[in-house]
Structure formats: C-alpha cells, structure tokens
Structure prediction request, 593 residues.
Amino acid sequence: FFFGASNKMCGILAILGIANGAETMRQRALTLSKMIRHRGPDWSGIYCMGNNILCHERLAIVGVDDGAQPLYNKTKTIAMSVNGEIYNHLELRKTLQQKGHTFMTNSDCETLLHGYAEYGPDFLTKMHVNGMFAFVLYDAAKDIYIAARDPVGIIPLYFGHGRDGSCWFSSEIKAMQDNCETFQALLPGHVYKSETHDVEKWYTPAWSNMELIPTKKISLKEIRESFENAVIRHMMAETPCGVLLSGGLDSSLVAAIAARYQSTRGASDAIAFPRLHSFCIGLVGSPDLKAAEAVAELIGTKHHSYTFTIQEGLDALSDVIWHLETYDVTTIRASTPMFLMSRKIKATGVKMVLSGEGSDEIFGGYLYFHKAPNRTEFHKELIRKVEALHMFDCLRANKSTMAWGLEARVPFLDRDFLELMMSFDAEQKMCVDAQGKKRIEKWILRAAFDTEMEKKDEAAAPAAKKAKTAAAEPKPYLPRDILWRQKEQFSDGVGYGWIDALRDHANDKITDEQLRQAKFRFPHNTPSTKEAYFYRQIFASHFPNDAACKTVPGGPSVACSTAAAIEWDASFKNNADPSGRAVAGVHDAAYKQ
Prediction:
C-alpha cells in the first residue's frame, strides 16, 4: 500500500518558553518523553534550541529508513513534531512545489510544515488537509509557535502551563501532569497560537451549524463510492497492516473494501502480507467471534480469532485506565478487549490496522436513535456525537492500540467522506422510512452495500442497461445476515458476560457507604454507580491532579447517547446505562426492566 509517504504515528512532547533555557530541561524532557515511548518505539528525536524543546517518539510505518523527526525546513528555522497521517499529501505537495517549496523528506506530514511556511499560522484554513494529525511547530526566525489538532480529534493532544510560565504540549497526560499546574485537551479543529496565547477554531464546516438542517438527498451509489475511496486512501503503509474485524457492520465493510482493494494489487505492493490479515477478540462463544469468522471466510482475509477470559480483562483494568487516561464507563468497557487484542496483533508483526469507528455517529447507528422524534433532532444529535468523538471512540481507538505501538486508522472519519455524509437529509438515515414504517438502524449504509438491491435496480432498468450489466454479476460485499445484523456495541459484542462481570466485580470492591459518600471524594463528575466509582478510584491513583479528572466527560447516557437525547424517551431517564442493551424494545437482548 505504498503511496510515497514517510508516515509519522508517534508520541510528541513539547516544552516552549522555558525560563532558564532549553538545556536546563533537556534531560527532564527526555525522561518525560520516555513515558509515551509506547506510542513510538522505533526511534526518538529531539529539538533543543533557545528556550524550546520538541521531543518525538516515532512509530515507523512508511519510509521506515528515513524521515526522523522533528521535521525541519531547508534552513532549519522551522521545526515541527507531528503525530499523524495526511491522506491527500501528494496533491498538497504538488501545489506547494509549484509555489517553489523544496521538500527535505518524503514525509506526508512535511506538507504541513511547508503549508505554514507558505500561508502562515492560519494555513489550515487555506489548505484542504485530509488526515488525522496533531502537531507542534516552532518558527525560530519569528520566535512563535503553533499547535493544532485534526477536525475530529482522532489524534490526542493536550496543553498546559508549567510553573515557570512555559507552555507544554503532549500526546498524553502522563508526560505533563507532574510539571503543569493546569492542563486540558486541545479541542479538535482548533489551533493554539503563541502570539495571542489563545486557542482559535480553524475548522468550521457547514455541517456543524445546528441551525442548518440539510435537505439534500443522496444516492446509495454516492455513499458506496465515497466510502470505498476513503478506505483506499487510508491504506498507505510500508509495513504489515490489517483490519479489526468485529463482525459488526462497520468493521466488516471496512474489511471487505480493504480486501477487495488488496486483491487488485500485485503481491510486491503488499509488502509483507500479500493477503490481508483480520483480527477479532471476544469471550469464548461471543457474538462477535462467530460473525467475524463468517465475514473473513467470504472476503478472503487471513483471520486471527482471539479469546480472553474475564479474569484477564479484570487484571488489565489498571493498565487500561493508565493508558486510556479516562474513567468513562463505556470507554473502559470497550477498551479493555481492544487493549488485549492490540498486544496480540503487535506480536504478529502488524503495525497498522483499519477500524470502523465513526459510522454510528455519522449515520445514527446507536440503538437509541430508534427513539429520535424527527429528522431535526436526529441530525442535531449526530452533530453532538461527532463533536464528542475525541473524548470517547477516537480516544479509545488511538490509545488502546498505541499502548502497544499499533496504529489504528478510521476511514469513516475521513474528512471528505464525513463532510459528504453530514450534508444530506437526516430523514434518509432515520430508523423509519418515508411511510413511517420501522427499519433497522443505518439502513441507508447497509443498502448502499447490498448487491441484492443492486440486482433489483438493474432488473427494473431499461433493456439497454440490463444488457450492459448482465455480464457483471455483483459480488456480495458481506454475508446478508452480517450486512443486516443488529448493532452491537463493541463492549457488548465481545460477550454479554463481560459487562455483567465488570458490574459484579465493582459491586464486590465498592461498598454502599463509599457510593453514598462519592460526592465528597469525587466532587467533579461524581460517579453514580459502583462500576463508575471503581474506575474513578483507579484513575485517581494514576492521575491525582484535579486537572486530569476534568479532561474526562461526564453526564448521563443511554446506549452511548448524549444527555440531550435522554429526553427523547421517558424510559431512558430510569435506565441510564451506556450499554446498547439499555434500549428496551429495540435490542434483541435488552435488559429486563
């Protein structure tokens, strides 16, 4: 999958404006950067000049033999440490070269450095950058720095201030919490500028305006072709790569498209694995394992089916919370099996995987969307969900894999695909059709990849079109029972016993009195269940700083809803659990009321 890039998934740490000069903090910076070396175990780099330090821990996926960071311009007056992938870098590079820029490496991320050199601190508003990224850039000639994050927040980045007035940036909290009085997440689509010491929003898409409810219709073909292109864009790598295949709709579609594309390329292009590898994990007998095996058999991947025991999951909880830096119940439930699977995947030699995060937020795939009262509320909830992804699914997908130096890419959150999917009428996404008849969640996405529907369309087509397409019998993307399988949240799909065991374990560890007094120990985002209290207690042992607990979202949720959507149905208010099984009357294995 080589696209001529030198990709940089990694961990970054930057300390800028050090009062006593950079050399006084060099060894300390190297020690702190080591705390996030799991994100980039292949090489380390440091820029240490004047009052500023940029550290970089590199995971090499493309351009393995070159492209060390930080990156520099030709005169070395601009230095940048970046964690990311730029999927349209070839087009950007061509434009910048035409403007006279000389590139020093094959890095896709070097386009960001030259974009800054050409357009200044606001370059992200003047270039269409399609990628996932977080970066810190220092301009020595002007003595200014900027830091920015991708539109959705796929890649994490935090910033804070040291006691000496220095400004800190880090991929993870653990590298900065002992040195910063305050810190917080840099929001997705935002940029920090040292000239103003303020954060500005650089990404302001039309779809984020709650007052603009789209009415444009979209065809199934547009959805299918746009997503196929998104998956292909995400398949650039020089090292072994694979797909996470839970057997649910989203990961299965990603895997099916990736497998089709892989089969069209010569074996010499698929560097180490001519056949695409797929991976799944679950408790013995879990719904996901069986479904994933059926998909893998149809699409022809080399499938790896892993199991874990409940005790193995419980034993990993403290490590999961340390790596994920959260106490959110849903995130921890889903991250633990993903964390365990990532370790097994890394042992196979795979360094990059495609994953299915983002689809439920774009298409309204969570089961509570069945209760949406109308298209307007449906679309507004989609906006809220996409804008919150950086605190939940993006955080999980990034940190649970990068804990083992494995990179996860998320084609559903491809910028071009996202903007197109958020621009059409939400009525087409709803769980009722135009006649008010109930239908399965994400019907339109399923239909876009249903070749049986394509056959019916052709049967109804004019004779000339029939003759033209008769020789091309469409090959199914997925088994029909998988394509139309009900939504399972990852924490449910690995086996219903997993969540039940977590609750039982927390009930054994946390007393009734502890829960009653929770507001005194944890006044911010006070846990309301023993399971939430148990996770919060572990989090506090790793991250005692008050600023750390404030980086984690709170509030009630049903089946991963936002707090606003709980108002859709009276039953939600009495059963605020993030599992999909909390949606009575919709989930086939709903909790008994």
